[in-house]
Design brief:
- The structure is a single chain.
- The protein is built from 3 helices and 3 strands.
- By secondary structure, the protein is an alpha+beta fold.
- The longest helix is centred in the middle third of the chain and has 17 residues.
- It is globular and about 40 Å long.
Amino acid sequence: MLDKYPIQFEDAYLRGRSIECNWEAMRPSDYMHSFVIPVDLTRSLQAAITTARKEQRSPLALVDSVKAQGFVLDVVATIDPKLWKLSGRFVGALTGFHGI
């Protein structure tokens, strides 16, 4: 668990890494976290997620039985496979937080 501690989001090496974005079926709480990340990294993530939503084809809608279990479709961003995945909703919330 300590390998994923949020302080790693402060590391300068993350700024030079590419951000991978993919659509995933997930529960809204799956990639929501109780920490914030630096504003510059949040802006980069928001730009990558916005681009992914425009350029990547959205997957087919979820079937009702999957929706009933609480799953939704969202773009998920990854900077480093050893760190947490970040949902588009989480990054959107961070963008609003930093805008205050």
